[in-house]
From TrEMBL:
Species name: Stylophora pistillata (Smooth cauliflower coral)
GO MF assignments: aspartate kinase activity; ATP binding; homoserine dehydrogenase activity; metal ion binding; NADP binding; nucleic acid binding
Gene: AKHSDH1
Pathway the protein contributes to: Amino-acid biosynthesis; L-threonine biosynthesis; L-threonine from L-aspartate: step 3/5; Amino-acid biosynthesis; L-methionine biosynthesis via de novo pathway; L-homoserine from L-aspartate: step 1/3; Amino-acid biosynthesis; L-threonine biosynthesis; L-threonine from L-aspartate: step 1/5; Amino-acid biosynthesis; L-methionine biosynthesis via de novo pathway; L-homoserine from L-aspartate: step 3/3
SUPFAM superfamilies recorded: ACT-like, Carbamate kinase-like, Glyceraldehyde-3-phosphate dehydrogenase-like, C-terminal domain, NAD(P)-binding Rossmann-fold domains, Nucleic acid-binding proteins
Classification of source organism: Eukaryota, Metazoa, Cnidaria, Anthozoa, Hexacorallia
Protein name: Bifunctional aspartokinase/homoserine dehydrogenase 1, chloroplastic
Record flagged with keyword NAD: yes
Amino acid sequence: MIVEVFGIETFLPGSQIDVKPIRDYDDYVNKTMEFKIIKINHKFKNVVISHKALIEEDLAEQKKEIMSGLEKGQVLEGTVKNIASYGVFVDLGGVDGLIHITDLSWSRVSHPSEILELDQQINVVILDFDDEKTRIQLGIKQLKPHPWESIEASVKEGDKIKGKVSVVADYGAFVEVAPGVEGLIHVSEMSWSTHLLSSHKFLKVGEEVEAVVVNFNIDERKMSLSLKQLKKDPWTDITEKYPVGSEHEGIIRNYTNFGVFVELEEGIEGLIYLSDLSWTKKIKHPSEFLKSKDKIKVKVMELNTEIRKLNLSHKHTMENPWEKYESIYSVGSNHKGTIKTIKDKGAIVLISNEENEVVEAFLPRRHMEKEDGSTLKKARDKTTDQLKELLEKAKQQRNYKTELEAFKKYQKAPMPEINFEAEFSLLSKVLEGVYLLEDYSDKIKDLVLAQGELLSAKMVVALLNKRGIACDFRDSRKYLITDDHFTDAAIVEELSRQNIHELLKNIPQNKVQIFTGFIGANTSGETTTLGENGSNYSASLLASYIGAEILENYTHVDGIYTADPDTVSNTQKIESLSFKQALELAHFGTEVINAKAMIPLINNNIPLKIINTFAPNDKGTLICKNPSQKKGIQILSVLDKMALIHMDGKGLLNKSGIDARIFNALGKEQISVSIISQGVSERGISFLVKNTQANKAQAALANEFNLDFLSNDVGKIAIEKNVSVLSVLGDTRETFSKAYKALIRNHIDPILINNTVNSNNVSLILKEQETNKAVNAVHSEIFGVVKTINIAVFGVGNVGSTLIYQILENNEEIKNRKNIVINVFAVANSQKIYLNKLGIDENWETALKEKGIAYKIKNLIDFVKQQHLENLIAIDNTASESFTNNYETLIKNGFDLVSSNKIANTKSYENYTSLRKTLKQQHKKYLYETNVGAGLPLIETIALLHDCGENITRIRGVFSGTLSFLFNEFSSSDKCFSNILEEAIAASFTEPDPREDLNGNDVARKLLILARELDLQNEFSDIKIHNLIPTHLRKGNKQHFLKNIKDLDPVFEKEKNAHPTENVLRYIGDLHGDLQSDKGILEVSLVSIEPSSALAKVTGADAIFEIYTESYGEKPIVIQGAGAGAKVTARGVFGDILKLS
């Protein structure tokens, strides 16, 4: 506001008008008031004044007077001054107090404005105050009796009670059964079904519900409720409803690698093992056979009510066909079948019987001989390669005649009566000449290789005619005219087109024309070949000359995929591609498309369809000008067996003509260059050639630049062989970004990166041994298909084994929700490791025992490299210090880390920072949430507060779930301490050696971990630890300690009797002091706690942590929950795995 003082305009900031917030500035216009000048700027003639400063001076004495008269429990009258989301500020007549939102009402409050409004006059009670900081903590709800005091008489366990849902969380829902009285319905108590993923899917806030009281504790003011108890437990009469041998219908609820879970009714679920799904099919995963939520018929095979285990079978609901098949498919009987797939070891054949039942049969390769004597193959053996071998043997004057006779026999096998005399005679004469001369020319090579095409085409014609399909044999040498460049001849377009057009005039109707591929002839009539993939080129030329509507290419694959199916297991077939995309693929290694063969089709707009010879009715992949495929298609292609040539030197800088000299030299030697990369400074140039041409290229360049070497203008011409090109074809730069991130995350560093001007194609030059791993990692990232996370679990004790079973049980659900499969490829104890690329199953413990091998960490690393595994995470569930020495090795070999082992984070500060440095250098992550709070989000919360700049002033709490359980039981019962400790050991609440809990080291390590999260440089030796173990039990082995466990009883009984009976004992970790300095104060001790303290109210094996910050003041952030137990810790480790995934 502008205020006139002695005729001078001064400035009054809104914040300086009053100590109370100003709601309407118009109330002050034309009002005369007193002000204090707080700032004068003579240069700019600016004066700042304040009325608030005068009020504060008057209030200072008033505050002192009010504060001196305050007492806890005192009731005062005040005015609501301000309302915030966390509470209400009340003016007590010169001094403000805060009512925290939790102290407004015994009922749950979403916002303070629901209870109070501005300027409202209210009575408040003093809960606490601080004279120095003039902070006053107020309450309203404390003016009324606690509602729990009046409900005790009306509620008992087993009662049905009604209420309204007040809060819904993942773990359960709170129901208000009376004002200020809430009970918790845990998610496990909502239904007898085991498939409630979240309470949100079951209950809604505000919903009226009825529930059964299953636990009521007036002292702790806790009530546990159940919805499912309203219904009868379905397992009580399960033997009557689902006896062994009975058949039922159920719903598929969940998959695992070893079977499928079927729900028969709510709360009744059984498992069908893979082997019990079908009599006739070999099923690798249930998803091949069934879909989630499908209905399925099952038969009860086994029922165990004690452990609630129900084994089911689907195949036993049907008659066992093998009893019938045994007579139909007896040894020696003959049957006709259809080839489903052909593999290296044999073929899968589909055989139908008279009842149209289809049976899958395996045909071993040794039995793959047909009636005509020929052998069933993926495709005809490569005749061209056999002829090349015959030429080489003849040239080397080795015995080629035996193989030639075998070749003749093989070629005639499908039809022995066929006449191949002309071809065989020519081959015999030519090979004999080569043998005598010990050499052959490209012209002779073309002539020999052409015989393979002639033999194949004549055989096809003869077989088709025999089956009643009229056809003619056409020797392409009469029609396709080429130049004289033998082995890679170029077509003479005009002559070839005229020849085909002339032929079309004379072709008889209804006759199929069979042309030889790959071959042509020059104008002198000499045989030539059209180079690599020449048959495809021949076909596209013929299609263009006759004006075909479409060219269908029958090959050994179903079409074009997003990546090579032999390398990537979850590739997706592409229904259609543009000509441009197909050309890019052809250039970068896709075998089924040839760039040269595409040109005639593109020029004449003739679509090309790729179809599997063994699946002719399949859609295949269509390549055309305007494909139906949506924009954004992305494909991975690999060009292997390449070499990178790098040439550099100071004389190349700004010197014209260098590039021309390089490529002229390579061109003279007919060396093809695929990718070129040049530095901005032009001091170096790199390019790719085939491995086989690398040395030749180096020699050509050395010859061209020999004088430049002498003048030191060229420094070196280096070769790096055995590299691959991984090409990513897409429409945006985002495609490349995803690909590069996937590589870096998997510890793959490209040698070279090259992209096109329009950014539609990015090529990554990689070491050949990294290619498979790279393709799988990039494919998962780009296509959003199921990503496989490969994990190695070290330590298979309570936590480790529980984690493995949690992963196996939940993997299918995670796959459906997150598109992630967690593949446990390695499990290890201290002595053995079991490795399986495809992952473990429910029999992993037997596999580790029987198939595990003694190991060092190098064995794991070597296995990962050999199997090209990507997305690696190592899990440390050991308690071993020696194993933590492997962390840096694992990180440097591409592993992220998850650990429940605290030791790595509590070694020397030098080791601690060294590990973080390695993680940063290698772009890897290390998660260890379970190091401190088991499954509680403690480390994550502290790290977030610290990273956001929040000043954390103190952290204290019950850090050990084990010690929480021990002292809860000990403080509230008459049991001996040793008996309670034995219960904790049996429940797996303790470390393997319980002394690790009792000596305070476990709590101390946790406290040190939190200190280091705040960038404090404390060492373990800085911690003041109260060791709970009597001196004489500290040494010796675990068995010695357990044998003398009763010696603990008098020690703790004395400790208990030394404090007031109403107090409880708590083993507390406390981090305090100046936490902005290099080191804090860390203390671990057994203390007596008053019952009113939050630390005293923790129950069972819960842990509780108080985080004090500058912003939150005296009200700490409290995190409480289960602090011990294998299931809780394993679930926390599981959570860290999913965060990394």
